[in-house]
Each structure stands twice: as C-alpha cells, then as structure tokens.
Specification:
seven-stranded mixed sheet, 14 strands, globular
C-alpha cells in the first residue's frame, strides 16, 4: 500500500500539495495562477483531471484557491471540500463578475470527512482574522497499519496546533520568514505567518511528545524576499541543538515554482 506526498507549488505565488494512495489522489489547495497551468499540473500529476478525486481548500486567500483553479475544477466536476465558515468567502472573492454555476462544493466542519480511502480531519489555525484557516490531518488506513500526515501552513501561533502533529509519520509545515530579513524588508502580512525559529520550537515539541519522530518533515510556504532554504534549515537545526534533541527525520524544503521530490510516507 502506497501513501505518498509531493509539493507541487509552495509560497505566496501559489500553493498546491498532492497526496495519494493506490486508490485515491487529492490536492490540498489549488492556488495555480492560470487555467492553462492548472490543467498542465493536473495532467502531469494525475494523468488526466478526472483521476483527481478531490481538492481540499485551507482558506480563501488567492495563493491557495483562485478563479482560474475554480473554473477548471468546475468544468471537470472535481469535488471541492471547503470549510462551511469560508465557503461563501471562497466563491465571492474569486468569481470576478462571472458566477460559478456548477461547482461541486462539499463542506467540512469539526468532524472527520473522507475521500476515497483517505480520512481527513480539519485543524483550525490562527491566521488572518478575516479569513478562517485550516490545516489537515490526513489518515490512510488501507495498509497493514494506519499512517498519519499533517499539513499546517498560514498560521502564526503553534501551541494549539502541536497536539495534531504528535505521532505524525509526515509533516508539511510553514517556515515563512527569517526575522532579520523581515526587518530589512518589512511586510505586515508576514506577522500572520510562522518565522523559522517558531517552526523549530514547534517541531522540537512534537518530537518530545511523540512515540517516535516523523519519517520526514518538509518546510513550506517560504517567503521569496524574507527567507531562504538555507536560513530555514539552519534555524530548525539550531533549535534542535539548543534542546539537545536528535533530528531523527529527513528534512526537506519545498521549492516555490516546481514540484518537490516525492515523499513515500508508506510503501
């Protein structure tokens, strides 16, 4: 039984993450900037759009969902899971004067929901006050043992999030900015995101409370101007050293404009 992950795009210019098993393939977010790019990505990563079982939306910001993606998803009748508190926000923010008439919208709330053989739990996170935002626990139960992957991006406070990452087999987590680069290149929106050192503290706490470390961690949603992969990795490594904790997991950084390596969560 395979359970795999790949970051397709990551960052403020667009976010799209893929999870799949032998039976099911989903995207978490689909912030692709044009209908052409959206179709190209779907063709490359699924063979054809009809093989994509669902898209799960974290929140209404345009780097996570937008008009172009919604138009393609509407035409292909791909189910779109949106939290009930931000469904109208997603539709009205991105309709560009041309309403969507046949989107296959499904609502999630505080309960688990399923698509194919994946079970998903929404995790509310603290982000921009005007935009309800969610991360996800994604569970695969079709193999000899259950596996758990967690996605948390676009958040600024980690203490209410940590419990969801405990005992995860894979974690995709935001490491948005370096505080010194933020000082040099100010951006008020950055304060709604995690700086590298906070992400390090979160991961240290997860390892302390878990039975074993995750197999892999990927850092995502790095700012183009206010972070680098080198700075993010160094901040995480320094935090683990300060806590005298081993980093018993592979650490990856998601590229911004191309797909990452494939992470095999389970085989």
């Amino acid at each position: 039984m395979a359970f795999c992950f790949q970051s397709i795009r990551s960052g403020s210019s667009g976010n799209c993450l893929a999870f799949w098993t032998d039976k099911t393939r989903i995207f978490v977010d689909c912030g692709l900037r044009s209908q052409k790019l959206c179709r190209e990505v779907m063709a490359l990563h699924t063979g054809c759009p009809s093989k994509l079982d669902a898209v799960v939306i974290s929140h209404a910001h345009s780097d996570h969902v937008n008009y172009s993606a919604l138009r393609v998803l509407e035409k292909e009748r791909i189910p779109i899971w949106v939290h009930k508190d931000c469904a109208s926000q997603v539709l009205h923010k991105h309709f560009l004067g041309r309403p969507f008439k046949s989107l296959n919208i499904r609502h999630y709330d505080g309960r688990s929901f399923s698509t194919g053989d994946l079970e998903i739990d929404a995790v509310e996170v603290a982000h921009h006050p005007d935009y309800p935002t969610f991360g996800f626990e994604i569970h695969s139960h079709s193999g000899s043992k259950p596996y758990k992957a967690v996605v948390v991006t676009d958040f600024m406070e980690w203490k209410k999030v940590v419990k969801h990452l405990i005992n995860a087999d894979f974690i995709y987590v935001e490491a948005n900015h370096d505080p010194e680069l933020l000082r040099l290149y100010p951006n008020p929106n950055s304060y709604y995101h995690m700086m590298n050192e906070r992400t390090g503290e979160l991961l240290c706490e997860v390892v302390k409370q878990s039975r074993s470390a995750p197999k892999a961690v990927m850092l995502g949603h790095l700012s183009a101007e206010r972070n680098t992969a080198t700075l993010a990795v160094k901040a995480i490594t320094t935090c683990f050293e300060a806590h005298s904790l081993p980093m018993d997991f592979e650490l990856f950084v998601a590229p911004r404009e191309r797909a990452s390596e494939i992470i095999e969560i389970a085989l």
